[in-house]
Design a protein that fits this description.
alpha/beta, single chain, 40% helix
């Protein structure tokens, strides 16, 4: 049962004009079968009523800690970093405001945590704006295979591909508060990729990939990485810069 003591997990959601999807996202967290968590929701200056929806949810569930920016920061890293600083749990979980969790997501990942574990992540399914499958069964299974293959190659694999689904991540809070997310403009949309390159470069501790679809990632027409060419250019810049700095 949920305890008023220090939560095990701090779940961070940054939102900006996602009222259309946020209700489903919040419910996917609040309906988790593992309920010892706090839910930190940071609204980044929305003007579509997202803030009112968050307040309504916060009144009904004391696990929700809402925060509101008066103006939009223009960076996906800023509200997340704010949430990281506020986190009280032993582990931090990230969830985009339009993505969804399987009801057993926290419970299953929690079972994989050992003393030396610093991060647990999972595979996912991609859905469209209406919640329907975005990719074919063949593409889905191929992506899962490649995700597992690149992940097992450690840093070398990360130079070629980012196999970590941000909305699936469960990571030690002390690690995140030490690393934080990069707020430089050139990393908008790939803040997670830049973080993993730094983290995997220096960490020899245990990072676990669970090959189970515990998250649904929503592909929207206005998503940051919807433009794959632009996303690829940003990723290449990120890898190149990291490689040059380390070598």
């Amino acid at each position: 049962m949920y305890s008023k003591k220090k939560p095990k997990f701090s779940i961070i959601i940054g939102s900006y004009n996602t009222k259309k999807y946020l209700k489903l996202t919040l419910n996917s967290v609040l309906n988790q079968t593992f309920d010892n968590f706090e839910l930190i929701v940071i609204d980044d200056g929305s003007n579509d009523g997202t803030d009112k929806l968050i307040k309504q949810f916060a009144l009904k569930d004391k696990r929700i800690r809402p925060f509101f920016f008066k103006k939009n920061s223009g960076k996906d890293s800023v509200p997340k970093n704010f949430g990281i600083q506020k986190a009280k749990g032993k582990y931090i979980c990230f969830l985009d405001s339009d993505d969804l969790w399987h009801k057993d997501k926290l419970r299953i990942q929690n079972n994989y945590i050992k003393k030396d574990t610093i991060m647990v992540c999972t595979s996912c399914r991609y859905i469209d704006e209406n919640g329907n499958n975005h990719t074919s069964s063949f593409t889905h299974h191929l992506r899962k295979y490649l995700q597992n293959w690149f992940f097992n190659k450690c840093l070398l694999g990360f130079y070629m591909y980012n196999p970590v689904i941000f909305s699936s991540v469960m990571i030690k809070t002390e690690i995140m508060k030490n690393y934080m997310l990069n707020e430089k403009p050139e990393f908008i949309g790939i803040i997670d990729y830049e973080l993993w390159l730094r983290l995997f470069q220096n960490s020899k501790k245990k990072i676990i990939f669970v090959n189970k679809d515990l998250v649904k990632i929503r592909r929207r027409h206005d998503s940051l990485n919807r433009n794959y060419t632009r996303a690829s250019i940003r990723a290449i810049h990120c890898v190149t810069q990291h490689f040059l700095e380390k070598n």
